[in-house]
Amino acid sequence: MKIIAFTGAGISKQSNIPTFMERPDIREKLFRDYANTHHEEYNEVIKQLKANMNGAKPNDAHYALAEYHIPVITMNIDGLHKLAGSDALEMHGGLPEDDEMDIAWSLYNKPVLYGDPAPNYQRAYEMVYDLEPGDIFLVIGCSYHTAIAVDLREIAKSRGARTIEIQEDAAHNVRKTLENLMK
């Protein structure tokens, strides 16, 4: 049995990182057109995101996925999976380095913006297409608000994999779920 984890903002909420649903003022500015026409304002938005994530530490959900060597596809840009020790596929890239902040508006994949190509989407699709009947697609803290989140669930289902959703209290429920699956 193979397990693939697909994570969204809900896994990092317990690491004190606000979700975009809680910060619509930020989400509406994460468009390529906005970055290209409002350089300074966009750079400020990215500084806010970095400040929200500054000092954030992985929670037990991140650590459990790393300890069990579960491949991770994440929509998050916070880097917490990598800090926990997972080799996560970051579909939306990451954040600019401190020395890139003045040109943040011009960077691609730091993060992937609405209207940008998403270079890691193809790899995410390939990972989920590799699932077989009896495999597990573990969805953690992901809404249905993006097409990719819906697509990956549908692909897993079409491949015969079982989808397990953990939408609440990921910091406790991920480890429990993995322990039960590994029995």
Features:
183 residues, alpha/beta, Rossmann fold, 5-stranded parallel β-sheet, 9 helices, globular
Overview of the molecule:
By secondary structure, the chain is of the alpha/beta class. The protein has a single domain, classed as 3-Layer(aba) Sandwich (Rossmann fold), CATH 3.40.50.1220. The protein has a 5-stranded parallel sheet. The termini are close together.
The CATH topology label is: Rossmann fold
Helix content: 40-55%
Question: What string, H for helix and E for strand, traces the elements in order?
Answer: EHHHHHEHEHEHEH
Strand segment count: 5
Task: Pick out the low-confidence regions.
Answer: none
Mean pLDDT: 95
Question: Could you name the CATH class?
Answer: Alpha Beta
In short:
The protein has helices at residues 9-12, 24-27, 32-37, 39-53, 60-67, 80-84, 121-129, 147-158, 170-181; strands at 3-7, 72-74, 89-90, 136-140, 162-166. The chain is an alpha/beta fold and 183 residues long.
Task: Describe the secondary structure blueprint for this structure.
Layout: E1 3-7, H1 9-12, H2 24-27, H3 32-37, H4 39-53, H5 60-67, E2 72-74, H6 80-84, E3 89-90, H7 121-129, E4 136-140, H8 147-158, E5 162-166, H9 170-181
Parallel strand pairs: 1-2, 1-4, 2-3, 4-5
Helix pairs in contact: 5-9, 7-8
